[in-house]
Amino acid sequence: MTRPPSQDDVQRLLYELCVDLGFCLPPEEHRRLREAPPADADIFTDAVFEAEGMGPGEDRRLRRQARDVVVRHMRGWAMLDRPEDD
Asked: Residues near 48 by Cβ (< 8 Å), separated by ≥ 6?
């Protein structure tokens, strides 16, 4: 079972989206995503676009880039849940 990401996990994801792709969300949206992040990469990506005032279909190339970042982070969160080999 995958644990939910910590607020620090989500903070790192949002930081990368801001620095690398320019998705520097308003503080209230930033807080909302940190406190209750969507568990699905597409829904998370759509939430970021909506917080920026963009529709998910507005810039397909940028959406794909943002989704790739979200997926990479979410995979990392899942990896943290693997039990260590003894």
From this structure: 17, 23, 25, 33, 66, 70
